[in-house]
Amino acid sequence: MPTPLANRTAVVTGASSGIGAAVARALSAAGARVALVARSPAALDETAATLPGESLCLPADVSDDAQVAAAVDRVEATWGVPDLVVTSAGVCDPATLAELTPGSWRHTLDVNLSGTFYVAREAALRMRRAGVPGDIVTIGSELSVIGMAGYTAYCASKAGVLGLTRALAAELAPDVRVNAVCPGPVDTPMLAAEFAAGGDPRAAYEETLARVPLRRLGTADEVAAAVLYLVAPTTYATGTALHLDGGTTSV
């Protein structure tokens, strides 16, 4: 099998399940060494067991900059400077404005936005110091560009991810490319938990499908394929937001 990412060292956050785990598998299958970052050691071990190539499990909370720095230190000490980063760690806790507490607001931004910044910054500065070209792919959302009731904190955090992506792309060019994938509703444990939180998962599922022009959920593997496209050496893109949303942002 071809290994287009042979000799590349990847860091994937949120690698314990869903999109992050799918991205880790895709990068590993393409030949990359993959460092898996998430909070649960047991879940990371489960993901690692599904990878065909080398992996490194690094339990860490991306909202803690010191833990992020320590994790990237481990990667560099083990394999060298990482040259491929995918920031998939994220949380979503829907709440009306009246129910949205300052603590929940801070937690969402700490993980989704600050966590993306900490990981991207650690990797990018090391690439620059070492003169290593590379790729950073952030995971935004359809809600990076559209609003949705009950998702104030999530919308704000993901809009911030898109702004961060574009600013980093401008500053790090031409050696480090920074792009975003913005999925719509994707069939993951996080989305299933959102459906269940409302008390009627089936109704929530049907309501979601009704607003997607393609009338289906996306898959984590489809998002992983988009990441592979963006990190291919022949892809002429930086500062790009690839909307993989079944058409939700086109109507």
TrEMBL record:
| InterPro entries the UniProt entry points to | NAD(P)-bd_dom_sf, Sc_DH/Rdtase_CS, SDR_fam
Tagged with keyword Oxidoreductase: yes
Keywords tagged on the record: Oxidoreductase
- Report which superkingdom the organism of origin falls in: Bacteria
Q: Name one Pfam family in it.
A: adh_short_C2
The record's section on PANTHER family has: 3-OXOACYL-[ACYL-CARRIER-PROTEIN] REDUCTASE, SHORT-CHAIN DEHYDROGENASES/REDUCTASES FAMILY MEMBER
Q: Name the family.
A: Belongs to the short-chain dehydrogenases/reductases (SDR) family.
Q: What is this protein called?
A: SDR family NAD(P)-dependent oxidoreductase
Per the UniProt record, the source organism is Amycolatopsis heterodermiae
Classification from the root reads: Bacteria, Bacillati, Actinomycetota, Actinomycetes, Pseudonocardiales
